[in-house]
Amino acid sequence: MADFLLIHGSCHGAWCWRDLIPELVARGHTARAIDLPGHGQDATPYQEVTLEGYARAIVDAIDTPVTLVGHSMAGFPISLAAEMAPDKIDRLIYLCAYAAQDGRSLVEMRAEAPRQPMADAAIRTEDGLAFRVDLSKAPALFYNDCPAEAVDYALPRLCIQAIRPQATPIRLTDAYASVKRSYIRCDDDRTIPPEYQRTMTEGWPAQDVHAMPTGHSPFFADPAGLADLLTQIAKG
């Protein structure tokens, strides 16, 4: 069985894996989640949050090798964690996430997508260093197919998102390339266009690219189905 470490995306925290963790445990795995700096219970000021800090928090949370799952924005910090400590990671799994590319930032990759669903939903702070998500638009963006209870649970927990880690180009070498990787595309995603998720995985081996019919938050929309797919991927 696998040891899963789950990493949340923008404006979220470890709390978003609430429904997935027990499903993974029920299948015989171990599973846990952490808050990245400035998210959830971590009180790091957003002005001090960096991409390297995200990745270091992930690496520091690993004692023995894990299957590292990154949702959405977390595609970048899990990639950098693999660059920093490839021996600590059995496999990277990108869950409707940005599949980081050497020399590019998440901001650059997001701008490359054919549509920009987040453009009208992100509200910048006065200093321009972070943004919040318009709570009136978040349900349609993040949780379009999720149970109402899960949406009610999530909305008050959404936090401010530092821009600096998303605007920082990532550097990836053979260390990163040595780690196995898989991708889970979400075909009803209203945040990262599914067609761009396809673009990001062009050239990947077919057996390493999977799909779910959900929106951007399958951990709420279909936690059992996601746990089954993660189990399949972890078995290799």
Automatic annotation (TrEMBL):
Location of the AB hydrolase-1 domain: 4-228
Stretch forming the signal peptide: none
MF terms in GO: hydrolase activity
Keyword Hydrolase: yes
InterPro entries cross-referenced by the UniProt entry: AB_hydrolase_1, AB_hydrolase_fold, MES/HNL
Protein name, as recorded: Alpha/beta fold hydrolase
Matching Pfam families: Abhydrolase_6 (PF12697)
Keywords: Hydrolase
